[in-house]
Amino acid sequence: MPPYTPLDLLNLGDGFPSASSHPSLYFESLSTLTLLLHETHTIGYLLPSIASTLRDPHLSGPHWSSNGNTITLQGSTAEERSSNIHATLNLWRAQHLFRVLDGWRDELYAVYAPRGELLFTIERSAAALFGLLTYGVHLTAFIHDPAYPGGLALWIPTRSRTKATYPGYLDNTVAGGISAGYTAFETIVKECAEEASLPEVLVREKAKCVGAISYFYVRSEGAGGESGLLQPEVQYCYDLDLSDRRDVVPRPCDDEVEGFELLGVEEVKRRLGEGKFKPNCALVILDFFVRHNILTPENEPHYLEIVARLHRTFEFPLR
Amino acid sequence: MPPYTPLDLLNLGDGFPSASSHPSLYFESLSTLTLLLHETHTIGYLLPSIASTLRDPHLSGPHWSSNGNTITLQGSTAEERSSNIHATLNLWRAQHLFRVLDGWRDELYAVYAPRGELLFTIERSAAALFGLLTYGVHLTAFIHDPAYPGGLALWIPTRSRTKATYPGYLDNTVAGGISAGYTAFETIVKECAEEASLPEVLVREKAKCVGAISYFYVRSEGAGGESGLLQPEVQYCYDLDLSDRRDVVPRPCDDEVEGFELLGVEEVKRRLGEGKFKPNCALVILDFFVRHNILTPENEPHYLEIVARLHRTFEFPLR
């Protein structure tokens, strides 16, 4: 199966057809789905099994209205809608309806209406059941050093072998979801301390937001829970240049990470090709490689497709 | 009208609705257009006036077949198709059918089938008549210097007052279209010499491709010729960091540019807000600002929309 090309990695992380580049494929896929609506806005895509569960008040409670191929969550305020969806999730857990909820995190994600207005909050592990757009932060710590082939080396962690999702896979230096109420920057500062023991003062001074990637992931086995769940995501990307702070060495702090290695770009490319990275983390590395002139129009035949597709636009409102 | 926000600038440069973020608007726009097809692939969008001209062999020659809302250029090889479309353009010029052809450049652009195969070449000034995707290179030369507010200054040229398109507007340090047969890198090297007198050795060593932007421009008055012509574009973006080469100063060489100024980021922002930049050059600066942590999630409310829409995916095959 390996080696994976950059385009293979992109297809693994961004598996749902795009309306812009492949309109027919997109509408074929969409025709099998039910739209989760707020007023006239699509806020999520529902697989048939989940839509039929939501339409059954015995399984999901009375908080859902259905009309043709659309379903709406009832409630006139964010509080009411949050409480209603939470009640549904409690019913589902009691009935053991969806395995993905075994990974319950007790962490709330925010779902937005247009203009960044809060629509409701939802338990993190449940977002993919509704095809809801979620947000995270990923940071790449690196050094410029001619001793490494390619002149650049990245701090790469191995995920803990006991993690429910992608155990033992490689990851970005630091990564985390943005919980409801948090900014991107405060999230990266917090995660840098928790996952990599990076000093807060250093992170606040030197971590720079340099873009965002967006992709529509169709969950595979490795993600845990049901396969095929729809997971559109945005990740704010941060660079942390430690070239002049060689004394700073990421170390595991919580139990998320087994250890860190400083890997030259050629070694990172090799492990990407072997499929060793968590799928969305591979996309963050591809974006890093583009911005740092490692993937170029001269050495990557699918350069333009990769650069554009790393920045997918969604029908859903953004935060 | 001014000041323009970054989102206003994006809307000026990327005015055609997107299938991904606004499917209904997109299909409403598309329903007024005719598709230019190659086999089953859409390679361009035709306005009604242009489609009806192509359907009339007295106006456009015999090289076009029409079927429902699609039109195909005849010819079984790239040479034959190029020769056929050139014959049509000669007829149109003789009849003075389209004002945009007054800007005839004697420069050939390449149009691609899937997998980068050459479909045909076409005179540059005619590409927008067929809504064909074209390619260019834009370079931003800059210095890091704490003397400037924001710590960064960009070399910004003013376009010649005698240019047919956007006379007197501000531009990127160097920019140019990619002619048929040229690579992106060879184009930027050539344009750096022609437009900014930058030494070839320096450019080859220090100009780095750091991504690409893509957008669907709907031509306005300033672009010259008919308004409303459809112009989807990809621009490879290059950074040229001159922080350690303060002796290098861009100077006009050909007659494209009136002069260069070194402007701090706050001054660049002010002039962007005043609408002084050529629309697509403003988008290159927004991308530069994102990559250099000048536009951030904290200071730009539409950050995610801007980052994603600067990287539009198209239905058309890519080079």
From TrEMBL, chains A, B:
GO MF annotation: an example: 8-oxo-dGDP phosphatase activity
InterPro entries: DUF4743, NUDIX_hydrolase-like_dom_sf, NUDIX_hydrolase_dom
Pfam families per UniProt: DUF4743 (PF15916), NUDIX (PF00293)
Chain ranges of the Nudix hydrolase domain: 134-285
Source domain of life: Eukaryota
Stored PANTHER family: THIAMIN PYROPHOSPHOKINASE, THIAMIN PYROPHOSPHOKINASE 1
Name the UniProt record assigns to this protein: Nudix hydrolase domain-containing protein
Species annotation: Terfezia boudieri ATCC MYA-4762
Source lineage: Eukaryota, Fungi, Dikarya, Ascomycota, Pezizomycotina
